[in-house]
Amino acid sequence: MELIPTVISIGYAAGLNAYGTVVLLNLLGRVGFGEVPEPLTGDTVLIGAAVMYAIEFVTDKIPYLDSLWDVAHTVIRPAVASLIGVEFAAFEQVSTAEEIVAGGASGGTSLVSHGIKAGVRLGINASPEPVSNILVSLAEDGIVAVVIALVLAEPLVALAVVIVLLAIGIALILLLRRAIRRGMRNRGRRGESRAPPEEQEPPAPPSGP
Three-class SS of residue 164? Predict the structure, then answer.
Protein backbone atom coordinates (compact mmCIF):
# COMPACT_ATOMS: atom_id res chain seq x y z
CA MET A 1 0.00 0.00 0.00
CA GLU A 2 1.30 3.47 -0.92
CA LEU A 3 1.17 5.15 2.48
CA ILE A 4 1.47 8.85 1.61
CA PRO A 5 -1.11 8.83 -1.23
CA THR A 6 -3.42 6.89 1.09
CA VAL A 7 -3.23 9.21 4.08
CA ILE A 8 -3.43 12.38 1.95
CA SER A 9 -6.52 11.11 0.16
CA ILE A 10 -8.15 10.01 3.41
CA GLY A 11 -7.31 13.39 4.91
CA TYR A 12 -9.12 15.12 2.05
CA ALA A 13 -12.21 12.98 2.59
CA ALA A 14 -12.15 13.55 6.35
CA GLY A 15 -11.99 17.30 5.77
CA LEU A 16 -15.34 17.07 3.99
CA ASN A 17 -16.95 14.59 6.38
CA ALA A 18 -14.86 12.94 9.07
CA TYR A 19 -17.65 10.73 10.40
CA GLY A 20 -18.64 9.51 6.95
CA THR A 21 -15.00 8.70 6.25
CA VAL A 22 -14.73 6.57 9.40
CA VAL A 23 -18.02 4.78 8.67
CA LEU A 24 -16.93 3.92 5.12
CA LEU A 25 -13.49 2.70 6.19
CA ASN A 26 -15.12 0.58 8.89
CA LEU A 27 -17.70 -1.01 6.58
CA LEU A 28 -15.33 -1.54 3.64
CA GLY A 29 -12.73 -3.00 5.98
CA ARG A 30 -15.31 -5.41 7.39
CA VAL A 31 -16.25 -6.76 3.97
CA GLY A 32 -12.64 -7.08 2.88
CA PHE A 33 -12.64 -4.26 0.33
CA GLY A 34 -9.05 -3.24 0.80
CA GLU A 35 -6.87 -3.32 3.89
CA VAL A 36 -8.06 -1.24 6.83
CA PRO A 37 -6.34 -1.15 10.24
CA GLU A 38 -8.22 -3.26 12.78
CA PRO A 39 -8.80 -0.40 15.29
CA LEU A 40 -10.91 1.35 12.64
CA THR A 41 -13.19 -1.65 12.09
CA GLY A 42 -14.52 -2.11 15.63
CA ASP A 43 -18.19 -2.03 16.62
CA THR A 44 -17.78 0.92 18.98
CA VAL A 45 -16.08 2.97 16.26
CA LEU A 46 -18.87 2.15 13.79
CA ILE A 47 -21.70 3.01 16.19
CA GLY A 48 -20.14 6.27 17.35
CA ALA A 49 -19.25 7.44 13.85
CA ALA A 50 -22.64 6.41 12.45
CA VAL A 51 -24.54 8.39 15.11
CA MET A 52 -22.44 11.50 14.47
CA TYR A 53 -22.76 11.04 10.72
CA ALA A 54 -26.56 10.92 11.04
CA ILE A 55 -26.51 14.21 12.96
CA GLU A 56 -24.19 15.81 10.43
CA PHE A 57 -26.28 14.49 7.52
CA VAL A 58 -29.17 16.68 8.70
CA THR A 59 -27.19 19.64 10.06
CA ASP A 60 -25.08 19.92 6.92
CA LYS A 61 -28.14 20.70 4.79
CA ILE A 62 -29.50 23.67 6.76
CA PRO A 63 -28.25 27.13 5.72
CA TYR A 64 -25.97 28.82 8.28
CA LEU A 65 -26.37 25.92 10.71
CA ASP A 66 -24.00 24.04 8.39
CA SER A 67 -21.45 26.86 8.74
CA LEU A 68 -21.71 26.79 12.53
CA TRP A 69 -21.16 23.04 12.39
CA ASP A 70 -18.09 23.62 10.20
CA VAL A 71 -16.66 26.09 12.71
CA ALA A 72 -17.11 23.55 15.51
CA HIS A 73 -15.30 20.93 13.41
CA THR A 74 -12.30 23.03 12.43
CA VAL A 75 -10.20 21.07 14.92
CA ILE A 76 -12.19 17.82 14.96
CA ARG A 77 -11.88 16.92 11.28
CA PRO A 78 -8.08 17.38 11.05
CA ALA A 79 -7.68 15.56 14.37
CA VAL A 80 -9.71 12.58 13.14
CA ALA A 81 -7.74 12.58 9.88
CA SER A 82 -4.44 12.62 11.77
CA LEU A 83 -5.50 9.67 13.92
CA ILE A 84 -6.52 7.71 10.83
CA GLY A 85 -3.20 8.54 9.19
CA VAL A 86 -1.29 7.28 12.22
CA GLU A 87 -3.36 4.07 12.27
CA PHE A 88 -2.58 3.37 8.62
CA ALA A 89 1.11 4.10 9.22
CA ALA A 90 1.17 1.75 12.22
CA PHE A 91 -0.60 -0.87 10.09
CA GLU A 92 2.27 -0.61 7.60
CA GLN A 93 4.73 -1.07 10.49
CA VAL A 94 6.78 2.00 9.63
CA SER A 95 9.00 3.97 11.98
CA THR A 96 7.67 6.41 14.56
CA ALA A 97 8.94 9.33 12.49
CA GLU A 98 7.02 8.06 9.47
CA GLU A 99 3.90 7.69 11.61
CA ILE A 100 4.22 11.35 12.61
CA VAL A 101 4.66 12.37 8.96
CA ALA A 102 1.62 10.30 7.94
CA GLY A 103 -0.51 11.85 10.67
CA GLY A 104 0.65 15.34 9.76
CA ALA A 105 0.05 14.82 6.03
CA SER A 106 -3.45 13.50 6.64
CA GLY A 107 -4.36 16.19 9.16
CA GLY A 108 -2.90 18.98 7.05
CA THR A 109 -4.77 17.90 3.94
CA SER A 110 -7.94 17.61 6.01
CA LEU A 111 -7.55 21.17 7.26
CA VAL A 112 -7.21 22.44 3.68
CA SER A 113 -10.25 20.56 2.39
CA HIS A 114 -12.23 21.59 5.47
CA GLY A 115 -11.36 25.22 4.81
CA ILE A 116 -12.48 24.93 1.19
CA LYS A 117 -15.73 23.24 2.23
CA ALA A 118 -16.48 25.88 4.87
CA GLY A 119 -15.69 28.72 2.47
CA VAL A 120 -17.86 27.36 -0.33
CA ARG A 121 -20.74 26.87 2.12
CA LEU A 122 -20.49 30.47 3.28
CA GLY A 123 -20.66 31.58 -0.33
CA ILE A 124 -23.75 29.47 -0.94
CA ASN A 125 -25.35 30.72 2.28
CA ALA A 126 -25.13 34.30 1.04
CA SER A 127 -28.40 33.54 -0.76
CA PRO A 128 -29.79 30.92 1.65
CA GLU A 129 -32.26 28.56 0.05
CA PRO A 130 -32.24 24.90 1.05
CA VAL A 131 -31.98 23.27 -2.38
CA SER A 132 -28.38 24.33 -3.05
CA ASN A 133 -27.25 23.30 0.44
CA ILE A 134 -28.85 19.89 0.07
CA LEU A 135 -27.35 19.30 -3.36
CA VAL A 136 -23.87 20.41 -2.33
CA SER A 137 -24.00 18.31 0.84
CA LEU A 138 -25.06 15.22 -1.09
CA ALA A 139 -22.32 15.86 -3.64
CA GLU A 140 -19.75 16.06 -0.83
CA ASP A 141 -20.98 12.75 0.60
CA GLY A 142 -20.65 11.21 -2.85
CA ILE A 143 -17.11 12.55 -3.24
CA VAL A 144 -16.15 11.09 0.14
CA ALA A 145 -17.51 7.67 -0.88
CA VAL A 146 -15.66 7.70 -4.22
CA VAL A 147 -12.36 8.86 -2.70
CA ILE A 148 -12.42 6.26 0.09
CA ALA A 149 -13.25 3.46 -2.36
CA LEU A 150 -10.39 4.58 -4.60
CA VAL A 151 -8.01 4.84 -1.64
CA LEU A 152 -8.51 1.19 -0.77
CA ALA A 153 -8.37 0.02 -4.38
CA GLU A 154 -5.96 2.39 -6.17
CA PRO A 155 -4.24 4.88 -3.83
CA LEU A 156 -2.35 6.66 -6.63
CA VAL A 157 -5.54 7.18 -8.63
CA ALA A 158 -7.22 8.47 -5.47
CA LEU A 159 -4.37 10.97 -4.97
CA ALA A 160 -4.71 12.22 -8.55
CA VAL A 161 -8.46 12.71 -8.06
CA VAL A 162 -7.88 14.54 -4.77
CA ILE A 163 -5.37 16.92 -6.40
CA VAL A 164 -7.92 17.78 -9.10
CA LEU A 165 -10.67 18.25 -6.49
CA LEU A 166 -8.45 20.54 -4.41
CA ALA A 167 -7.71 22.65 -7.49
CA ILE A 168 -11.43 22.88 -8.28
CA GLY A 169 -12.19 23.81 -4.68
CA ILE A 170 -9.61 26.61 -4.65
CA ALA A 171 -11.03 27.93 -7.94
CA LEU A 172 -14.52 27.93 -6.42
CA ILE A 173 -13.29 29.86 -3.40
CA LEU A 174 -11.83 32.52 -5.71
CA LEU A 175 -15.06 32.71 -7.71
CA LEU A 176 -17.22 32.93 -4.61
CA ARG A 177 -15.02 35.26 -2.57
CA ARG A 178 -17.52 38.13 -2.68
CA ALA A 179 -20.38 35.86 -1.72
CA ILE A 180 -18.25 34.39 1.06
CA ARG A 181 -17.65 37.86 2.51
CA ARG A 182 -21.38 38.56 2.29
CA GLY A 183 -22.11 35.25 4.00
CA MET A 184 -19.73 36.11 6.84
CA ARG A 185 -21.44 39.48 7.30
CA ASN A 186 -24.86 37.80 7.30
CA ARG A 187 -23.71 35.27 9.88
CA GLY A 188 -22.37 38.10 12.04
CA ARG A 189 -25.67 39.96 11.83
CA ARG A 190 -27.56 36.79 12.76
CA GLY A 191 -25.36 36.43 15.83
CA GLU A 192 -26.00 40.04 16.81
CA SER A 193 -29.76 39.62 16.40
CA ARG A 194 -29.70 36.66 18.79
CA ALA A 195 -27.76 38.59 21.41
CA PRO A 196 -29.90 39.81 24.36
CA PRO A 197 -30.49 43.57 24.43
CA GLU A 198 -28.37 45.51 26.86
CA GLU A 199 -30.11 46.46 30.07
CA GLN A 200 -30.67 50.15 30.39
CA GLU A 201 -30.23 51.89 33.70
CA PRO A 202 -33.47 53.34 35.11
CA PRO A 203 -33.71 57.11 34.82
CA ALA A 204 -32.59 59.01 37.87
CA PRO A 205 -35.43 60.46 40.02
CA PRO A 206 -35.97 64.17 39.63
CA SER A 207 -34.16 66.27 42.20
CA GLY A 208 -36.21 68.21 44.74
CA PRO A 209 -36.68 71.98 44.62
Answer: helix
